[in-house]
């Protein structure tokens, strides 16, 4: 295995007695695209941190270029050509593209001074290497996520990387942007640079990688060339069991009942240009489109966060004016935001408080909160949503991603929501919890008659769990498919034409 | 981030797990009680004949309420991750305006004014507190100015207006009924202390038992998530600054009643002390955590410390030094404690 | 178009407008003696503001520097008065050093205990002032005992003008000292890695340590420089007014922070420039000093400063929100 660039042999790592890594062996060869797959908490991030020298393994050894490294520090790791692109990209939004690109090199040379001509030259070279043009003097903050990612990759290359580790690089990207990222990854590979793609998204893994390592519970469960795997087998290895592929079917409708939600000619200045939408009880409607297509603004308008919207909205046959979040909630609209950690949860507060956040008035008697009733309500909900937590008093930050997402959904069930808008409901949720969340959503639609609007980039997810799928582009609905009958290829093809 | 894996799927509810319990009886309160006891023991040992005299505790019961109320006021602002640097300015402006009113009602004989005028003065002083708090709330909640800068600016405005009104020197000669608020006695207990206890209980109740208190904590934990959860963050944050302003004006009322005087720059060292007490009392300056009980114990500890040093004939300047050093020490201790826990 | 978007340009425009208005109310504003006086009043606020600028770019805030300035000034002047030391360079060096060491305490607490800078610096300010007044003394060193060399240094002029009636006035040479320091800080911020590390750390602290900045050095640099500049400015201040009062500079932090914020620095870190700060300082000092020219009583100064802070931050907040929307 002399061609291994970096190799972990029988590595073990414990945190407070809990085994995060257990006898893990993994090698990344020079110039290969390797994929590291696993659910959240399977040990992927720990492996990245061992490779980058942030963590020292308790057992086993790390070899770089075939020779054992005694104590790998972050500086050593960078010096040996290993660059990690973390999910947050670690860019400086307040500085220019050029400076972000040149900074690593200048730091490596232990420079004290900065010459701006040189900075621009370095930056230009870095972008040329990827064959991409970006405004050098723009602040990184002003760029879209996909462009930021390119800056991060170019910066890593600039540091004479031989291996680039990308931690969940596609989370915030739309489909087209993912394609572009995969292209760039191939460009990098042509220069003989290895890429370790850390992901839990099937399509990317199958499309890009040459070899695959799957982890579960801190162990490597399987490893081999990508041709040996299928989507189903990867899922099985990641979760330890098979998942159902049953397509969602809407329950029969009572035509006499007015629709849950009827939207006519809804406009949001600069984002949505006159859309019509009808959601009936039991409907799960998927909404996809590129970032900037207006889909999030549409959702926010329905949730009362864009009081500047125009058009008419009827809920259960009644005309309503959604001019604030409180009024939207009063009318039974609920919204599960895109970014669970920063927009959905109060991490250092208890599970119960997180669930009750929107319905405190319901448990208030006179002046005070009725503690007994609050406890009862939240415990009932914990049981109903099958949230694994020791009690309602546990801090929500201690829960897994899937359980946290259930807490956010539970919050809305407490407000007796009738219309549930989910923005990226399973982003950053591991495969096992993902299935569970889908099951809950379907259940709510069928049994409680909720109308669900599910915004997602994950076309297979929409196909399986929606009875209807809408594509949005430049503020308008451009296409519509029936769930179950449409195929992933047709939708992907349409999405590709929407540039 | 290591995920803690919960073990049991079916949740069990223990009756003691009152989930909306505001004061989580963590070791922070215990630590505070220990510090207070320690201060008490050390000071008693250093000068037993002076420190343990009844007079000493009585005098503490008159001086504690001002600082205690200012500290609770700052704690309320800190709950949402803000701060109110204008509390002392509000306190002084309230007292100065009331004093100005008394002087204009009875030029030269303001100290003989009756109850009616005093009631008017109290309404005016509290009105200043509400108005000043509303201005802070408006700037912070509606215009979204960083609390540090907004209240730094308004503290200048409040102090400045008080200065313009007085022209510099202190206003003296408040009506007797007004002074009762600062140095009267009810059933042998200092009236300001009674007032403090009542207000502390009321604020404690408000924060721990009402939806408003829980909402404040949620906003302090994650303001963005609070918006998405449908909390009216603008209104709640605004109200919290109005409450802060009101508490500050009551502190000003007590201060001027106790000293029979009002001045634009009285008690400037109170600001640091109030911040110190709030932090010592377990308030997280980043928001989401704080309790009236903690702040109350902390203010007691610091009053004991301060009076002890005065017994030992330390100059007031050195007491300033000790307050500052104590603040830094508390920070260090808290960090050490949290590190050990991790 | 793009130049107008820079915060410096906005401050410059506001400054120009304010000058025109004040000049219209009282043409004496445009008198050379008034303008020279204004420039001179910029020096102390300005030097301290440059220090605070560094701290704010790094994402912190400092309210302790006036205490440090007073400590450095009073200790050095007392030492000179007591020993009769006659020199200028060493005293300024010592004052700067005192400020620097005190600044290091701030950095130590903020960095080691990860505590909010406002609270730490409130604490250190109280400690330093308390020690100075409690242990060193409370008496003012007035002109009778004030070191003459310092007076001589502080009263040098670069330009001398003679009025028609024979009275003379000049432009203080201290403006050159201020200019030199401003240039130096500008070069450091713009053209050294240390300067860039301040922006990087202020913008994204986590990322700054990941890419390999020595962020500990960055924090120490910011607070030590702020302390050192305050110490230096403190002594310079006393040599310009010929006395050393250990209770000086109370509340001065507000003016300085207001000036830096006016100059476009962000309290959240990562943004701010020397040019903006110079303009912000000038604007603030000019409005404060021109109250008399505009026939407003000086007791209004504090109110005016408060209104300036509130309105300028409100404007910035409003602009940022519009940009986001």
UniProtKB/TrEMBL annotation, chain A:
Keyword Cell membrane: yes
Assigned keywords, A-Z: ATP-binding, Cell membrane, Membrane, Nucleotide-binding, Repeat, Sugar transport, Translocase, Transport
PROSITE patterns, per database record: ABC_TRANSPORTER_1, ABC_TRANSPORTER_2
Highest rank taxon of the organism: Bacteria
InterPro entries: AAA+_ATPase (IPR003593), ABC_carbohydrate_import_ATPase (IPR050107), ABC_transporter-like_ATP-bd (IPR003439), ABC_transporter-like_CS (IPR017871), P-loop_NTPase (IPR027417)
Example GO molecular function: ATP binding
Residue intervals of the ABC transporter domain: 6-242, 252-499
Family per similarity comment: Belongs to the ABC transporter superfamily.
Name of the protein in its database record: Sugar ABC transporter ATP-binding protein
Organism for this UniProt entry: Lichenibacterium minor
From TrEMBL, chain B:
CC annotations in GO: plasma membrane
Residues of the signal peptide: none
Domain of life: Bacteria
Alphabetized UniProt keyword annotations: Cell inner membrane, Cell membrane, Membrane, Transmembrane, Transmembrane helix, Transport
Coiled coil residues, start to end: none
Bilayer topology annotation: Multi-pass membrane protein
Residues passing through the membrane, by range: 29-46, 67-98, 118-141, 148-174, 186-207, 236-255, 267-285, 292-311, 317-336
Subcellular location: Cell membrane
A GO term for molecular function: transmembrane transporter activity
UniProt keyword Membrane, yes or no: yes
Annotated Pfam families: BPD_transp_2
Name of the featured protein: ABC transporter permease
């Amino acid at each position: 295995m002399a061609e291994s660039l970096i190799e972990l042999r029988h590595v073990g790592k414990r945190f407070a007695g809990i085994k995060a890594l257990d006898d893990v062996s993994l090698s990344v060869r020079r110039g290969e695209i390797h994929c590291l797959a696993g659910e959240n908490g399977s040990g992927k991030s720990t492996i990245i941190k061992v490779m980058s020298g942030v963590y020292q393994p308790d057992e086993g050894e790390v070899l770089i270029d075939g020779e054992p490294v005694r104590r790998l520090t972050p500086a050593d790791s960078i010096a040996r050509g290993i660059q990690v692109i973390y999910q947050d990209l670690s860019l400086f939004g307040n500085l220019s593209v050029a400076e972000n690109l040149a900074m690593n090199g200048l730091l490596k040379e232990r420079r004290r001074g900065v010459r701006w001509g040189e900075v621009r030259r370095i930056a230009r070279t870095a972008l040329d290497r990827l064959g991409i043009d970006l405004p050098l003097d723009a602040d990184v903050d002003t760029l879209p996520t996909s462009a930021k990612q390119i800056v991060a990759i170019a910066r890593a290359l600039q540091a004479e990387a031989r291996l680039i580790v990308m931690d969940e690089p596609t989370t915030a990207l739309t489909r087209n942007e993912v394609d572009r990222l995969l292209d760039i990854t191939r460009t990098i590979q042509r220069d003989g640079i290895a890429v370790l793609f850390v992901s839990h998204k099937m399509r990317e893994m199958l499309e890009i990688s040459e070899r695959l390592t799957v982890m579960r519970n801190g162990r490597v469960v399987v490893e081999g060339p990508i041709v040996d795997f299928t989507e189903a087998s990867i899922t099985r290895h990641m979760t330890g069991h098979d998942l159902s592929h049953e397509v969602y079917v809407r329950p029969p409708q009572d035509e006499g009942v007015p629709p849950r939600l009827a939207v006519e000619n809804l406009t949001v200045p600069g984002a949505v240009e006159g859309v019509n939408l009808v959601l009936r009880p039991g409907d799960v409607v998927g909404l996809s489109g590129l970032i900037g297509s207006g889909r999030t603004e549409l959702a926010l308008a329905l949730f009362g966060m864009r009081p500047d919207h125009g058009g008419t909205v009827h809920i259960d046959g009644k005309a309503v004016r959604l001019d604030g979040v409180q009024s939207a909630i009063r009318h039974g609209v609920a919204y599960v935001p895109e970014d669970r950690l920063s927009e959905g949860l109060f991490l250092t507060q208890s599970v119960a408080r997180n669930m009750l956040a929107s319905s405190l008035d319901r448990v208030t008697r006179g002046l005070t909160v009725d503690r007994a009733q609050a406890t009862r309500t939240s415990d009932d909900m914990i049981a109903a949503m099958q949230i694994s937590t020791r009690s309602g008093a546990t801090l929500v930050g201690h829960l897994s991603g899937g359980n946290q997402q259930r807490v956010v959904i539970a919050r809305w069930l407490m407000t007796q929501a009738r219309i549930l808008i989910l923005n990226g409901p399973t982003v950053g949720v591991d495969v096992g919890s993902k299935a569970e969340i889908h099951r809950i959503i379907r259940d709510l639609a069928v049994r409680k008659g909720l109308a669900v609007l599910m915004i997602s980039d994950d076309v297979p997810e929409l196909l399986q769990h929606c009875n209807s799928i809408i594509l949005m582009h430049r503020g308008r609905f451009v296409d519509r498919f029936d769930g179950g009958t449409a195929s992933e290829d047709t939708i992907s093809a349409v999405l590709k034409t929407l540039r | 981030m290591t995920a803690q894996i919960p073990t049991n799927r079916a949740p069990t509810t223990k009756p003691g797990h009152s989930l909306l319990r505001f004061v989580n009886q963590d070791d922070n309160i215990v630590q505070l009680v220990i510090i207070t006891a320690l201060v008490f023991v050390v000071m008693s040992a250093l000068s037993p004949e002076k420190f343990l005299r009844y007079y000493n505790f009585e005098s503490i019961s008159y001086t504690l309420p001002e600082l205690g109320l200012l500290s609770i006021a700052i704690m309320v602002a800190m709950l949402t991750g803000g701060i109110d640097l204008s509390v002392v300015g509000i306190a002084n402006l309230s007292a100065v305006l009331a004093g100005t009113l008394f002087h204009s009602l009875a030029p030269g004989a303001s100290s003989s004014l009756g109850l009616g005028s005093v009631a008017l003065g109290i309404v005016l002083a509290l009105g200043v507190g509400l108005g000043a708090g509303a201005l802070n709330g408006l700037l912070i909640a509606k215009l979204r100015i960083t609390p540090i800068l907004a209240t730094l600016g308004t503290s200048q405005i409040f102090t400045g207006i008080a200065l313009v009104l007085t022209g510099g020197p202190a206003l003296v000669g408040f009506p007797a009924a007004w002074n009762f608020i600062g140095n009267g006695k009810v059933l042998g207990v200092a009236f300001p202390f009674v007032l403090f206890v009542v207000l502390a209980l009321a604020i404690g109740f408000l924060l721990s038992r009402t939806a408003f208190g829980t909402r404040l904590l949620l906003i302090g934990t994650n303001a963005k998530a609070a918006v998405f959860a449908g909390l009216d963050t603008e209104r709640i944050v605004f109200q919290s600054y109005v409450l802060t302003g009101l508490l500050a004006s009551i502190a000003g009322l007590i201060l001027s009643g106790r000293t029979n005087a009002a001045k634009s720059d009285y008690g400037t060292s109170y600001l640091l002390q109030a911040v110190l007490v709030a932090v010592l009392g377990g308030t997280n300056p980043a928001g989401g955590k704080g309790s009236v009980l903690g702040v109350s114990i902390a203010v007691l500890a610091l009053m004991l410390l301060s009076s002890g040093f005065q017994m030992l004939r330390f100059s007031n300047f050195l007491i300033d030094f000790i307050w500052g050093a104590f603040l830094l020490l508390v920070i260090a201790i808290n960090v050490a404690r949290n590190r050990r826990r991790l | 178009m793009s130049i107008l978007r820079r915060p410096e340009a906005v401050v410059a425009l506001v400054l120009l407008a304010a000058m025109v208005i004040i000049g219209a109310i009282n043409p004496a504003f445009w008198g050379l003696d008034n303008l020279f006086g204004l420039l001179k009043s910029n020096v102390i606020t300005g030097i301290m503001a440059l220090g605070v600028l560094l701290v704010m770019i790094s994402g912190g805030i400092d309210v302790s520097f006036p205490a440090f300035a007073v400590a450095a000034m009073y200790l050095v002047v007392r030492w000179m008065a007591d020993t009769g030391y006659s020199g200028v360079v060493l005293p300024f060096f010592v004052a700067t050093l005192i400020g620097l060491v005190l600044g290091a305490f701030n950095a130590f607490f903020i960095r080691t205990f990860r505590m909010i800078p406002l609270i730490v610096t409130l604490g250190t300010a109280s400690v330093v002032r308390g020690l100075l007044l409690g242990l060193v003394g409370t008496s003012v060193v007035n002109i009778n005992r004030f070191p003459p060399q310092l007076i001589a240094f502080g009263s040098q002029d670069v330009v001398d003008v003679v009025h028609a009636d024979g009275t003379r006035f000049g432009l203080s040479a201290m403006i050159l000292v201020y200019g030199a320091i401003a240039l130096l800080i500008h070069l450091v911020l713009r053209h050294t890695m240390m300067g860039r590390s301040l922006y990087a750390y202020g913008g994204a602290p986590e990322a700054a340590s990941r890419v390999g900045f020595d962020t500990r050095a960055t924090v120490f640099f910011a607070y030590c420089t702020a302390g050192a500049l305050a110490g230096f400015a403190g002594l310079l201040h006393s040599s310009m007014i010929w006395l050393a009062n250990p209770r000086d500079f109370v509340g001065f932090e507000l003016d300085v922070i207001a000036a830096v914020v006016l100059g476009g620095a962000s309290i959240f870190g990562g943004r701010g420039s020397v040019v903006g700060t110079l303009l912000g300082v000038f604007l603030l000092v000019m409005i404060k000093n021109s109250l008399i020219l505009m026939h407003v009583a000086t007791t209004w100064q504090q109110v005016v400063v408060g209104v300036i802070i509130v309105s300028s931050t409100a404007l910035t907040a409003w602009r940022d929100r519009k940009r986001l929307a």
